[in-house]
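FYI - complex with protoporphyrin IX containing FE, inputs then prediction.
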Amino acid sequence: MIVSCRKGLMMSAVDASFEDHGRLFALEQDAIACPYPIFEKMRRDAPVVWVEEIESFVVTRYEDIVEVLRQPEVFSSAMATGPVLARQVGEGIAALAAADKDDIERVLRRVDRGRAKVLLSSDPPLHRRQRNLVSRAFTQRRVREWEGSIRSMAEALVDGFPSDGPVEFVSAFAVPLPLSVIADRLGVPRDDMADFKRWSDDFTVAIGSHHLGTDELQAMLLSQAEFFEYFEAKVEDRRRNPGDDLLSHLADARLPDGETLSLPELLGMLNQILVAGNETTTKLLAFAVWRLARDREMAERLRREPELIEGFVEEVLRLEAPVQGLYRQAVRECTIGDTTIPAGSALWLAYASANRDGRVFTGPDELIPERTFAQPHLAFGFGEHFCLGAALARAEARIGISVILERLADIRPDVLNTFTYESSYVLHGLRELWLTYRPTA
Ligand code: HEM
């Protein structure tokens, strides 16, 4: 078997011992960079297993994960980012509240105004009501209308690369493209993007990381307070002066009976759109270009046959899922395979493992752009909580890669690369990606 990981080389799979999963949850860099041999062992030897570090059962086989996702009434999303983080945030808030400082109190009051179970963390029937209110804002038809402006942004970013390279691709392209797309769609100034990025980084640092210090927690709460303050003012403004932007559509979204979203729901949703949407798309763009820089034959193929770019993006999603897995909580005792799951237990569903499950995908570790999917990959989840922004993320990646292939030749990884990964087993992303290239024009 070949697993493509690490430092740009195709390597033979390391023979991971089953206990190696401890290294993944201890956030060791090589395990985070390439968790796939570990997942493979888990699928084979212990497909549903309790892992103390994350206080959860870990589920690694495709069919088990899909079975769980088909039953949102049994497997709740209330703690979608896991029990450890939920507990740490609760304890941290209590500690900060006890500190009794004026500014902290203001921050907590503000954070409370935006706290609601929404989309990612809500369950049916509430979830369905919320989803019905927003899904029209992100349909494929709507995304098609945005494609022209996505392309213009991608072209402007590539044109800003130094003509003789190298460029650090994550900060020069993979971060600003999705951020400017969503800022434009929401109708908020691109000048505010630095704040969006800071908020987004502060929100996500604790996901899949379970080493949350007081400083990080405080930064996260402060950022949440600023975020809610910023968007509350914008929502009020759009309710008074509606425009033709996403923010106005969301602020005025109505069910047939006239019901709208509450302010905390709206703020929570904007938070997810901004954070869930950007961080993940950034990671997808970086992995896609990293693959092309390592596999120049593939880059040439996609230049000759651009209709394969769409399939290439699907394969990058499958092989390097930016969200490696998310949590559910069993509301009653149940069994998965041979394992009894007591009521109240948390489960980490390893989407990235399911995506390489040989029972479902032939040649599971190979990138095959013309692959047809009899069953979908799980990079965007499955069922009730299937990613709201999947069409947008796919369009950004397809258009971004097309522009890069049109404007840059001879793309290679630069020697400057350190190939370090974000310190998380949930969010899978390269911290930086240095590239050399030759402009085509
Ligand atoms: C490559 C990019 C992306 C990846 C890999 C990704 C991944 C995911 C995954 C795995 C889920 C399922 C959550 C679960 O099972 O509990 C999800 C849900 C969600 N995503 Fe994305 N996402 C991406 C882009 C976006 C974008 C661009 C947006 C912005 C509109 C977005 C907004 C959301 C929201 C709001 C949900 C919650 C949906 C619900 O619970 O009904 N995502 N995403």
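Residues 2-439 form a domain with the Cytochrome p450 fold (CATH 1.10.630.10). Residues 263-294 form the longest helix (32 residues).
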